Fold:
Amino acid sequence: MGLKYRVLAADDELWSRENIKRMLPWEDYSIEFLEPACDGEEVLERIPKEKPDIVITDINMPFLSGLELLDRISSQYPDIITLAVSGYDDFRKVKGVFMSGGIDYLLKPVSREQLVDSLSKALKTLEEREKEKADKEDSLLRENYVSSFLEDDEFSSLLNGKLFRPGKEFHVPSTKVFSEISTILVKFHNVEILKQSYGKDVLKMSYGLKEKLRELIGNERMIVFNYTDKVNEFIIELNATPARLHFIADRILEAFPIEKQGPITVVIHDKATSLDDIAAVYREMIADLMTRNFGNEHSIVLCTGSKKISDLHDRYTNRVESLITECLGKNDITQARNIILETAGLNKCDNQNWSLFEVTQFTTRVLNTIADADRSGDSRLYEEVQDAINYGLRSLNKEIIIENIELALQMASGPDATESSSISEQVESVHDYIKKHYMERLSLADLAEQFYVEPSYLSRKFSQRYNETITAYITGCRMDRAKELMKDDENKLEAISFEVGYDDYNYFSRVFRRFEGVSPSEYRKKQVGC
Structure:
């Protein structure tokens, strides 16, 4: 552990300086003992550079007495804690020490016990000050986080149509500084990394990323806000030339390496518009974002309107669909897998320029085909797979997608595991694990691997035991926790969504409405009215 505090002692007698220097193993107290000073004037000269936390001074020194030194320190450096040492038991001087801000008065010869006792008082005071300062900074920072979030919420209202809701008053700050603006959308695809980087604190994450984006852009007039419905999307509005916008995009991607932050998409809309048009601009940018190449790489997309979704390839052709259906009808899972991954090319989607839209469309239709062919006829068993595939799409992770397509094929082939005497205990263990970790990203494949159970078998046994799918149970845990958090009015709904495991507030809202019959905001109003 590094030395935390610094002590500077002052005495005009050499033996006294050496005695106090050797009296304690200072490092054991997390203290750096600075080379002692010969008099008070030397102490004042050294304080600005060496920044001691504690000064121990003899009272009787030439040139500048100990009491005068204490007065000067108290006046000029009030955060420094001072201790006084004297060879005279003089009440007037004792009183002077405390009047000058000293916290203790020691008589020579100073014993080890006396010094330890006085230092303990000093260290306790320093630690209390640090805690008070940290608490104050945390409180101020939290106020900044909340204020920043409220501003985000008002800007976000321009995107989601809430701005002009009847009975609501909104004020979008700083919009008059622009007559015409260009827009940059920054999307962080790996939300799990964001969560871990900021301790799962959505307010801290939003504030921190906005500050970093502002720093990267420079001194230009700009608006930077986090879209509260999509915690991993940030909108930048500014007056800039197309060349400047591309420079900013490059700089953003350089500042967030893939190995640390995961893939990022920067969408540039360089056509000058007014802030009133931001909702239409955003929809156009999101549509163009879907045209980016799929894969674990950064991407810059220029929103020109020339490359539309309708221009992209339909990778899931009728021929591919019929081949897969035929294989599943014969229960030839190996061949079905080969058609999906090799013939159709899903296995090479990241290096054969498949777009995010094409991968999304392909995987959705593949899963539907597999589910339709499942002889069990229980489509609920594919909820876990779909949820995991959706995560793979959002995070641009091909391995997760393929792993879960293969899992779906195993499920379609029917149960091939035999009943195990321990399966009941394993299912209970999975149930208990989910109850503790529901806010994390949990997939059927991961749970099966962790508890050494074949995935499709685990899915079926869980559903039989608890009369609901694993996904339904995870969602139920999340909804229960969300309702608990809603009891505190200071918990923002978007922050609650993030805390219980959803990076998309709109999706959270839809799931909540499906479970409770009302939206999160309506539910909260009813609770307040009770």
